[in-house]
Amino acid sequence: MRSIRMYVLLWLVFILGAAKALRGESILLTVDASQAPRRLLHARLVIPVKPGPLTILYPKWIPGDHAPDGPLANLTGLKFEAAEKPIPWQRDLLDAFAFHVMVPAGATHLQISYDYLEPDGVSATDKLLDLEWNEVILYPAGTPAAQLTYETKLLLPEEWKFGTALPVASQSAGEVSFKSIALDLLVDSPVIAGEHYRSIDLTPQGEPIHHEIDVVADSEADLAMSPAVQKELTNVVAESGLLFGARHYREYRFLLTLSDHVMHYGLEHGESNDSRIPERALLSPDAGVLIGAIVPHEFVHSWNGKFRRPKDMATPDFEKPMQDDLLWVYEGLTEYLGPLLAARSGLFTQEQYHEYLANAAAMLGPGRPGRTWRSLEDTAVALPGLGYVSQGWVSWRRSNDYYDEGNLMWLEVATIIQSQTHGQKSIDDFCHLFHGGANEGPKVKTYTFESLLQTLNEVAPYDWAGFFHQHLESTSVAMPESGIRNGGWKVEFTDQPLHLASHHGVTGDLYSIGLQLSSDGTVIDSVVGSPAFKSGISSGMKVVGVNDHVYTQDVLQEAIQAAKGKVAPINLLVINDDYYRLCPVRYDGGARYPHLVRDESKPDYLDDLAKPRIKGM
């Protein structure tokens, strides 16, 4: 036993000695992205070390993903050297993200070289690159990320331009060097770069902190932002200042990628956001809607998620697991405030904001039978193990509803604050108190469930603990529309289509026969218990015919409307693997789309919440 203890002690001494040495000298990182059009990035690290055992880590738990989904499989060509001599390495037997090496006597620096293979259709095209630093970084174990300093150089194809919140030390054609920065802030500061690039100032008049949007696209024509959208984005910045009463960044960059060849999503960062939408989005008549559905959400995260963060999600590095049980605050409150800012700024019209809320509530009603067995809280807690549900049986598995149901829960919170204080306080007062304070640049201020309740009670005394427990633990399938009703509105179904349907990926058949289909007829979801499900249709099949006609979305919706009040079924021809199947769908209710309708017995507080706060708008 004594020999084992001595071996462990010596190992710890070596590791602590190496970690101490790292605190006084920067790690040098060079990322050669000159071959980004080939989806190939080369990286080289130079790490100050002392002789002895050393563990090198690849980021596992990715901030914003809330899960251990670092893209390790794309790390290739890994080699270690010291004094120009190769050093063998071994992957940890229990943690595939950890690599062990023995630094030889006399070595002062360790060189590591490797490639990162950009997956097709994710972050790179022939004309642009979206670089998240966690993809191309290795770091030594034993030192918190905030105490590791990196000096970073990025090589780009000639003529490419870039946008980032990172402070630039120097740049020349195809090469940019960034100022020294702590590892946690480096990972929090992505870069977008491309042949077609544009920067637009979004700083409101009188605002002392600079805001801009940096845009890259697959063609020059796609960069054309209308003056109206530019004004509305500037309004988002101004309205955010009024909503939160404070900022927690040196400056802010909206990083926007326009491409049909990258994955479309948004990822939050403290001083920027990485948002990716279709290539011609700015040229669309619905440009404000497309931007408003994602950009304000990621912007709100600068306050809610990055500055204020659940204590158990504020980990010291990218190795320690996060506890995601408060994602209904981190993401749910953000999902409420983002569209609210879109409405206050003009990106969403009043009618579009109504449609957004109606659709969110309707999708969580009987169309989400998974709510009968799985609680809202579990959709957050289980994220590290289950990931984001996107393929098949979504309504029965139950998706990550801490977003949409969290949004509706926080709308209800807003109405309770107004009611309990007789109109003297609002959700804005909570945001001021919870997210306010001095601007000391990007930093993290943690909270717990108890401290959240304390802040809410300072704004409006109420049984907030009971309120949240009831919502988080419920397995009721009833539509969560209490906040909408408190605000003077209610959800009703009519045969009038949703203007925003295409942006939600929803067609009229979801709320009628219970099908969610892609444009080619592939079944994304067949709601368990719905008429389509009872006819034998399930996720993964493909609808190819409707009542003897070739399938299109219009043909199906016309058939649904024509069947209203009739006994004859809607006959859908589907392909299951290599076999055809005829599925008679028995439904006679006609087309159904959710809309908000005024309840004249109550004041219209919903629209009052969404009114601009900027004078003169």
Give an overview in words.
This protein folds into three domains: about 1-195, Immunoglobulin-like; about 200-480, Orthogonal Bundle (Neutral Protease, domain 2), CATH 1.10.390; about 510-590, Roll (Pdz3 Domain). It has 20 helices and 31 strands. Strands 1, 2, 4, 5, 8, 11, 13, 14 and 15 form a nine-stranded mixed beta sheet that branches. It has a five-stranded mixed beta sheet with strand order 17-18-19-21-20. A hairpin with a 2-residue loop joins strand 4 and strand 5. Helix 7 runs antiparallel to helix 8. Residues about 1-20 and about 500-505 have low confidence and may be disordered.
Defining traits:
617 residues; Neutral Protease, domain 2; Immunoglobulin-like; 29% helix; single chain; Pdz3 Domain; alpha+beta; 9-stranded mixed beta sheet
Unreliable spans? 1-21, 502-506
Number of helices: 20
Oligomer: single chain
CATH class of the largest domain: Mainly Alpha
Q: What is the CATH architecture assignment of the largest domain?
A: Orthogonal Bundle
The total count of strands amounts to 31
Rg computed from alpha carbons, rounded to a whole number of angstroms: 26 Å
Please estimate the helix content: 25-40%
Q: State the shape.
A: globular
Strand content: 25-35%
N-to-C terminal Cα separation, in Å?
75 Å
**Biggest pleated-sheet summary:** 9 strands, mixed
CATH superfamily of the largest domain: Neutral Protease Domain 2
